[in-house]
Fold each of these.
Amino acid sequence: MSVTIDDHVNPAGITCVNRLIALGRLSSVHYQRETASTNSDAITDLRRGALADDLLPKLYLADLQTAGRGRHGRTWISGDDALTFSLLINQSPDNNMTAADPTHVNLLPIAVAIAIARSIEFSFAPLQTRLKWPNDVYIDGGKVAGVLLETTQQDPHRVVLGIGINVNQAPSLPAVPPDSATHAIASQSITPKSIANSIGRPVDRYDVLETVIDQILETLSELVDQPGQIVTAFRQRCLLTGHEVQFVKTGQPDQGTCLGITDAGALSIQTASEVVHCVSGEVNQVRRR
């Protein structure tokens, strides 16, 4: 067990962290008042190779992130209105979760998105979520949460789950860098939403944290034992199925009708000439004007 908590962090955060440790959900914690990026902190630890298996899962938490990272090169600042953290997990062969298994690789981000969706639905019923492939969570037509998964070549069996949830305010999303290969698709307008805006009252972000951590750990176990249930849970919430979508194929924008996800977690799209199976990249719904 290793717990590092900075001075002057949020007391509600300390209470939540201590409860998660007492319940055996976490094996170690690094809680800071401020950091550039909790994902970067976790990646730094991975590259140092200083983490024993009995220290995982490890939570990296900060009250403020000044250079958080998202998919496709997006960066952002998180303050008191958002919950942002990283969870470092072990997906070793001993746990039957091999990084070399392509099905597991594709389903892992989907499973994390499902966990966030379930936690929101459980805590704020009757609020309903939708999932935009591969791992964005939507409520009331806007994005409320996103996930960034990262690993290292030195230790591919360990994965950093970076999570951001708009709890009390829906921020403006930064643009994708112009040199991104998916700029034409990913730069489309996304309407952000917050939990508080949808339910009509403020929410303590650290009340959200405990439920999300619980759901992530439970859903990852489900991914090992019953991956088909993960696929079904995503299909029930899929935002894009049946809609016209845009995506990038071999460096060029293309579009078609989304057919949903395969059993391996790829997104199937019927274009004018073929069915394309996307395993990565940006896919957005075509907005009719």
Amino acid sequence: MTSGHIARGVAAGAATTIALGALAFLGAGTAGAAPGSITWDDGSSHFTRTVSNTTPDAGETITVTTKFERTSWVDEFIYNVKDRHPSCLTYVPGSAKMIGENEYPVLDPEVVVDEGNGTGFVRASWGITDWVVQNRPGFHRSPTFSVRYKVGNDCARGTALNTGMDYGGSLGSGNYGTKGPAVTVSANTVSTTTVNPVTGATVGKATTLTAKVDPAAAGGTVTFKDGGATIGTAQVGADGTAALQWTPNAAGERTITADYSGNGTVNASSGYASVTVAPGDGGGGNGSLDTGSLGSLLGGFGS
């Protein structure tokens, strides 16, 4: 029964995926979460898998559910469910549960981060009569397995990452490890870094260097450089500003660079500004010798 069960599921699921792809295309550009669902039939079993947000940012948490239904009067008991996910998704401890008339947490699921192929799973199991799927007069039960994941910074960006599930029950088993819906982690936010104009820079005197990072709430750090020499590093504040004191040691034209580190889902960036540094007090040159002193010196030679 198992092999035929799986073959029918693949065909039905493929048609549903195409329909969902068209809907996703039509909905492109919609702000916020983009939930996605896929349904398929395998014999008299009907499955619905839903991802709360199929285009999450790194660091966000998503919920994945699988609903079990029957299209015949024959009952099926669910023995175990294995939710499969990309290894860059991290299981949220305590989130696995089976939902029926109430919610029933899975106290100690089996959690495998990576099977060595870039995918992991969360597996829950129950007693042989704990969870029944029914669809007959007076008896209708459609349990739903639910699990939550945190999206990792190591997830590939802009690439469809498959999810799926396997299960075992009283009528056989089904393997749908790549059935979907797929999760596509959003690309990182592009940042810009601008160095504020610097005026009044003078050798030997402290000058404040200020850089502005956009988006403002990005966090991270900015490293300031004078040419190729590092001046120091400053934290980016809540307003997107990083500031650092700089005491120039040479006069002339200088290039100040601000390198933003990036932070989580925000890319790194750099900005620069040209600064004219004036000589300091007592900077040398013939100006230190006044004309009166020079006249006295020459008069001495002539006497």
Amino acid sequence: MISSTDVEFFLALSRSMSLAAAARELGITPSAVTQRLKALERKLAVQLVDRSTRHLQLTTEGDLLASQGALIQASLEEVSDALSGRRDQVSGHLRVAAPFGFGRRYVAPVMASLRKSHPSLTMTLSLFDDPVSMRSQAWDVLIHVGELYDSGLTRKRLAPNRRIVCAAPAYIERYGTPQSPAALSQHVCAVIQENGRDASRWELTHPRDGRVAVTLSRTLESNDGEVAKYWGLEGACIILRSEWNVAEELREGKLVELLPEWRAPDADVVALMSNRTGRVARTVCFLQTMETALSPVPWHF
């Protein structure tokens, strides 16, 4: 029979990409992780981790233990939260995942504020290029910006966010202003590969003329949105960026909106969570604090 300590150990292991990463999280040596994993496998008489792959890969039995163990841990946390609630206290450990740029600018300050209000709360903020690709066991709340395919997770919309076609005055002075979406194919536009998707095809919608798709040249291409923004500010190209990312530069005139009657698909800011984590007091408190910080929306220009 496994103990709650075994469950806690294996959940930490399941959140990690390697035994070394698990060792860092647990504060023990990699060899100690290996020995403890072997002991747990002997106890259960099943193999929990596939050791033939480069990265840590759970077996079917390992996935089962991770998913059921997460439910057990969540149940224990709900009991703890209920008791803490009677003391008017938000406690425990909150794990948040978010994109690099948005996480630094908006999520990190919210977590700092939350910590001041609830000193018994501990938190981890993990920033990634594509947080959606992270294992769900690695976070309690995932902040996502942009289009999202059905993930089977509970989602909560935190704020609206447009995507805006824009360029620096220097680019417009040198190359002119595109008068239609079709004209973009004749301009230098930054192509950004984000969230595992190829963004060399822009879709824009007009309230009267409908939707148009434009295939761009790959003159300037990057997998980093901040690089594309830098190129845009330097007058090297036209960019398509989230309003939260360029509102300040648009207000200051460093960037100018192009084709204002045409609209790219919105990239709303949403929070994703499982049914179990969505009910935990610290998660609810974090989401309420995020909503307050984003209302009114701070990036409308």
Amino acid sequence: MKILIMGAGAVGAYFGSILSREKKSVTLVARGKNYESMVSNGLKIESVVAGNFVTTPRVIQSSTQIDEKFDLILFSVKGYDSEEAIEFIKTAVGNNTVIVTLQNGVSSRKRLVDCFGDEQVLQGVTYIDSTIVSPGVISQSGGVCNILFGEHNGQITERVKGIKEALTVSSGMDVQIPENINVSLWEKMAVVCTLAGMSCLTREEFVDVFNNPTTFNIAKKLIEEVIAVGKGSGIPLKNNVFDKTIGYLAERNGQFVASMYVDLKNGRPIELYDLNGGVASIGQRVGVPTPINDFIHDALAIYFKRSLAMRNN
């Protein structure tokens, strides 16, 4: 199976390196200094799960370098880069291409469906703590590196089985087909909106948010809001999802830092409208109040607009 990874950032490059190490047919899309380093020096991984290694997958930076149709595209760019990335992959998409979105937020699949149609896009979810240390160098910490994906209707189709087989490797990442991918998506939303939103709001790593009673109480209310919006949207979230979210955050307390917070500290755009802003927007549409998410959106909106404008100039 020919695989294209659209967005060789911290997440896409890590998964691409694992697939490359296993001799899978994989092409990575990178840009700027990241692209230059990968072409010149290979892709270097420093991982607590997969070990330290260097691999040399095919890397491209322009759609003019695409000379074939791909069987599978893993779509892993930041939400605010979606429009440009969708345009980029058009020449790589054939009649039988399947796109699995690994983006944060619950609107990613719709953006892709609007362009490529419902049949060609699968929802995915990923849990991984990885960062770009320097161009072409990815650090992965924590013990979870997985991809969950599935059909929107929950059926275990032959193509889903085929994709799982193509992505299965001996080590470094775990691939799962959950019972309901939409439930998995909203379960992650509860985690990442809390982790990212509270860290960016307080300008502190989540370990400090978690260990402070005042901010931890706000975080718990934020989780409740995300769950309520998910249920209000018709997602059959289980009654234990709140405790499950708290347990996940507690178990990994101090082990990870939200990538959105890292972006904010470095003056880069943040995924505000895919996370807390997205929850607030959906909550308004389905009639579920989201005062915590509203406040986080409002507090960070000025920064988001300024950082995006600065990057585009």
